[in-house]
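Anyone? Bumping this.
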Amino acid sequence: MKKKIYIRSTGIISPQDTFGEAAGIDIHTIYNGSRMNAIEPDYKQIMDPKSIRRMSRIIRMGTAAALECMAHSGLTEPDAIITGTAYGCIEDTVIFLNKMIENKEELLTPTAFIQSTHNSVGAQIALTLKCHGYNNTFVHRDLSFEQALMDAILLLEEGDVKNVLVGGVDETTDTSHTILNRFGLYRKNANNINLLHSPGKGTMAGEGAGFFLLTAERSLQDVAVLDNLSMQFDPEGKLNVADWINEVLSEHQTSLDDFDLLVLGNNGDLKSDRKYDSLQKAMGDNSRITYFKHLCGEYPTASTFGLWLAATALKNRKLPFSTGAAHKLNTSGKVLLYNSGMSGNHSLMLLSAC
Amino acid sequence: MSKHRPDIYVAGLGVISALGIDLKANRHALQSGESGIHDITHLHTIHKGVFSVGEVKSSNAELGIVSGISSTASRTALLSCMAAKEAYTDAGLHSETGLKIGFVSANSTGGMDKSEDFYAEFLTDHQKGRLRNVVSHECGYITEQVAGHLGIHHYISTISTACSSSANAIFHAARMISAGYLDVAIAGGAEALTKFTLNGFNTLMILDPNPCKPLDENRRGLNLGEGAGYVVLVSEKALSKLGTKAYCLLTGWHNVNDAYHQTASSPDGSGSYMAMQGAIAKSGIRKEEIGYINLHGTSTLNNDLSEGTALIRLFGDALPKLSSTKAYTGHTLGASGGIEAVYSVISVADGFVYPNLRFETPMKDAPLHPETSFSIDHNIRHVMSNSFGFGGNCSSLIFSAC
């Protein structure tokens, strides 16, 4: 990255109480079973009730998180809106598919079809904010949010825009959960608080919407600085994560020792958590490591929650939902966020305090 | 705006559409004015015999053999692989270039053709339905499958902004090269005909049962199509390393949101207007220098009026040569920006100007006079390609002679 990118504000809806000013971010919400659902705000406080009725759940979540982020930014309109979503609007996709099959392609109505396109969330945000600026939607599996972020970084580096509203959103529906469950991704009777303490086969499903207002110009209210974003595509699972991360760090004249905190995307599944082993070993000191998927669950854009957690920790000099690790960050705080999602791709973000 | 951004060359092309399975077949059909719009043959739907579509004539089994990926894969992946492989070879790429190569591919419904099969069984019993038919539901899965086949792993990205998806993929790739993250990118998109999209567009009542008539006063809707189209974008350094001759440059691009309605374009075409104007500004040319515009021109009442209004507002009486090639291919949704980018590149490189098939009567409220026969104009230096989609996403690209 050629420029420092400032995160001016955030807005996040997650399975934890993370939305709004009074969010009780030190109290865990406990989930039992195989799935954590997002805690949705009272949308009527945020959006026009008439338009809420027309929106599907994922569009509501995405739009509300985006509006919350904008409200904290002190800006009325972003120059660009970029969204990441791997699954897109599954609820409406499934509604239309079911009707089409049940009615044998007859007597169908357009509403679900219209809202099934992957850019519906980004489009609704543009409509709500009356924003004619750049608008794009990335749908690349577990790197959907990272690629949206990459595109935002490019825009800011090119200098054509001053700020970008960028986010990730994915929903779990009963149908999608039933299908993904058949792939053996989830445990039957898990408890999210113990999820990472008792690794086994499978994880818990999650969902949420997280938006970030990025600028290339510093302001007094910035939450954190994004110093680097890197991705790795690793279809055969051959990547040595620690070697790759050390390589990225040395390109940035830094090393693991310089970081106050590592935020890792372990999800409790023994097999997929092996990807984190080499990094944890290289770090040595467990007191500088924290996790986030026991709070938000596993989903393709879960790194939005990880980024929110890392940025919030840097702003408050303290971890929200502290899990025993690194309660305090020093003033020259640096945080490393590493995530490997369900498709096996890898992402790394380096953040620092403002 | 970065004034001294590096040049982005187009060094390879690949395309599959209703006009044929490769570049040569597409060029031939375009030149001879042969439309690819016919009755449905492969898609299993009750609408067979009702709606005309731009279907790729090959079956999945045939595409599997030629593309080299399994014929049980989604048709979207098969189409994508056909065109991406052609583009890769056309640019002289190989696994030992030492260049940072990316694959940026768009689609609007992923492997929906397979998901439909899965759901039909799943609905009868939630333990039924073959899981292999639902793995490709994610749009990005298709891209990774094809990237894997091409041996590309440096950067793999998928974009989905409905009908403007491929145009956005192409210029995201260009910007990745400009910024130095990539040397080469195969960029465009793919889309297969599915029952989901056919029935979806049918509920919107914007399908013409007969072959469509873009820009015509008596147009009655669009024909869906399928296919894939990719351009290989390369930096100057990569171009000399590959030793390939470039077709042209990608000089302009712009993306805006109409922010008017989830599906309809604003009547004054403000999104289309801003996209075209922005692309011209980025390109650094005067609008009078545009020699040909490959329109979005879907043949719906709404799009063509909106795009026409924007064109007249932007160009006044001095409209460049223009046409919609969707009368040839149908509207290939997420692939349209890729397929039409390929046609636009040929237009810059070889002077091809495509006819707007079946055009008779100019629209009353936005009279455009598209080309009605094929011609070759070697004076064309700049070609604009428009792609507008649901959700207000409007993008324009400009290709320019080297």
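Late reply, but here is one note on the structure posted above: The mean pLDDT of chain A is 93.
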